[in-house]
TrEMBL record:
SUPFAM superfamilies xref list: EPT/RTPC-like
Keywords: Amino-acid biosynthesis, Aromatic amino acid biosynthesis, Cytoplasm, Transferase
Subunit structure: Monomer.
Protein name: 3-phosphoshikimate 1-carboxyvinyltransferase
EC number: 2.5.1.19
Boundaries of every Enolpyruvate transferase domain copy: 11-424
Catalytic activity: 3-phosphoshikimate + phosphoenolpyruvate = 5-O-(1-carboxyvinyl)-3-phosphoshikimate + phosphate
Subcellular location: Cytoplasm
Gene: aroA
Coiled-coil segments on the chain, per record: none
Length: 429
């Protein structure tokens, strides 16, 4: 188990920074390119462990994928040329790979088995498996077919209408991918708005998707064609630096070329509601995705209530928002976020344990937490629990701690942000 010792510092965050490519878009770009006919080039691809699991899955299915730094070249031959893997697919720690690939594997005429690491093997898969079975999918797994490892006896699926019972972009995307491979039309009705990268990216590959509010339709039998994609910076990675610059005195930071999709910018909206000094400047679009720069300066924050429809938009950023709340004036309440209990770890318990160890006043609730602001953080030894976002939260907390912070099991940060510590040191002055 690797650890890092982070000493107290009086440095501030200054300068400019570019964060790695968006994790969600990187996954989807590879999936759509591998299913497509022709050669696609993906630039600014996130080379974290999770996205490379998706790359390796398609390599095992016979797709020639070349990697040169953060440029990925996918030589797609079309859906009909995918072959049956000769060994089980390892999804590692990647929930996105597991759930989106389930939609693909269920609809291909192949037999496939897949497994994940200890953490992923505890995360619920029935939320994807049950609606896929309504389409005719044959999927078996542990615990009444709800957990990895899974076996897929792929077959032609039937398009159907799904009313989702969870707010999950992964479930939605899995069903749309299955619908693209199925006969007839598939309609997905969302419980609430979730990130919409699948709906925005598929048309770039020539696949028609009809979106009307919470209703999304896709016709089966469509064949994607190659498309070059430039992946914008990941706002979920930028979130750690947005909070860091907000809570470290005398900081001013510019984060360049960040994806500013309206279903992903909840971190900016939440911080602004807390009183953060943030400016957003959209300067281009990549496909339909708005991209721009974010300027953030140190400011005095105030507590807030984070709930309702904003939660799915900001679900991955709640750990770092909780750290911001410890430094805000007043109380912050986070609720309607029970989904946090089904991430890489139980993020509610992990956040509470980490921040409490460092000296904060945080109480867990069934669907969130209550944070008393204005807490001076002392330092201490904390565990990432194998969760990249908990590990990075601990590292950012060290910037305002009176004593040393030890982050155990730091290597999990490579899942989404391999250059995190390099980038952090670059802007500390």
């Amino acid at each position: 188990m690797s650890s890092i010792e982070l000493k107290p510092t009086d440095k501030r965050l200054k300068g400019e920074l570019s964060v790695p490519g968006d994790k969600s878009i990187s996954h989807r770009s590879v999936i759509f390119s591998a299913l497509a006919q022709g050669t696609s080039v993906i630039t600014n691809f996130l080379t974290g462990e999770d996205c490379l699991r998706t790359v390796e899955a398609f390599r095992l299915m016979g797709v020639n994928i070349e990697q040169e730094g953060n440029k990925i070249t996918v030589h797609g031959k079309g859906i009909s040329h995918l072959r049956e893997p000769s060994q089980p697919i390892n999804f590692g720690n990647s929930g996105t790979t597991a759930r989106l690939m389930s939609g693909v594997l269920a609809g291909l005429p192949l037999f496939t088995t897949a497994f994940g690491d200890e953490s992923l093997s505890k995360r619920p898969m029935d939320r994807v498996i049950q609606p896929l079975r309504v389409m005719g999918a044959e999927i078996r797994g542990r615990e009444d077919d709800s957990l990895l490892p899974l076996a897929f006896r792929g077959k032609k699926l039937e398009g159907t209408r799904h009313e989702l019972t969870v707010k999950s972009a992964q479930v939605k995307s899995a069903l749309l991918l299955a619908g693209m491979l199925a006969e007839g039309e598939t309609e997905v009705i969302e419980l609430g708005e979730t990130r919409n990268h699948t709906e925005m990216l598929l048309p770039e590959f020539g696949v028609d998707v009809e979106v009307e509010g919470r209703f999304i339709k896709i016709k089966g039998g469509q064949k994607p064609f190659a498309s070059d994609i430039k992946v914008p910076g990941d706002i979920s990675s930028a979130a750690f630096f947005l909070v860091a610059a907000s809570i470290v005195p005398d900081s001013e930071l510019v984060i360049r070329d960040v994806g500013l999709n309206p279903t992903r910018d909840g971190i900016v909206r939440a911080l602004k509601e807390m009183g953060a000094n943030i400016e957003v400047h959209v300067h281009t679009h990549i496909g339909s995705e708005p991209v721009g720069d974010i300027v953030v300066r140190h400011s005095r924050l105030k507590g807030m209530t984070l709930e309702g429809d904003l939660i799915p938009n900001v679900i991955d950023e709640i750990p770092i928002l909780a750290l911001a709340a410890t430094q805000a004036e007043g109380k912050t309440i986070i609720k309607d976020a029970e989904e946090l209990r089904y991430k890489e770890t139980d993020r509610i318990e992990a956040v509470v344990e980490t921040l409490t160890t460092l000296g904060a006043d945080v109480q867990a609730q069934e669907d969130g937490m209550i944070i008393q602001g204005g807490s001076p953080l002392k330092g201490g030894s904390v565990d990432s629990y194998g969760d990249h976002r908990i590990g990075m939260m601990g590292a950012i907390a060290s910037l305002i701690c009176e004593g040393e912070v030890i982050v155990k099991n730091k290597d999990c940060i490579n899942i989404s942000y391999p250059s995190f510590f390099t980038d952090l040191n670059q802007v500390l002055n």
